[in-house]
Model the fold of this input.
Amino acid sequence: MARIEGLEGSQAPLVTRVLARVAKRKWGRVTEMMKITAHVPKVASGWAVMEMLFDRSTFVERKLRKLAAVKTAVQIGCPA
Done:
């Protein structure tokens, strides 16, 4: 459980609402992290750019990146 309440829907600034819509299309839901970063739109935008660049990276093959993400989520106790 997060110590900060996430912003929902119309409470969030326009930029983060757009990013939330993209996240919902990509993952099927808006993550808790996205709701929390909605408090600071610059952080949410930076996070979105980092995710986009990570997804488009070709340095490490896609299957290995997915495996690393799942293993990391399991190790820190985060739902994958």
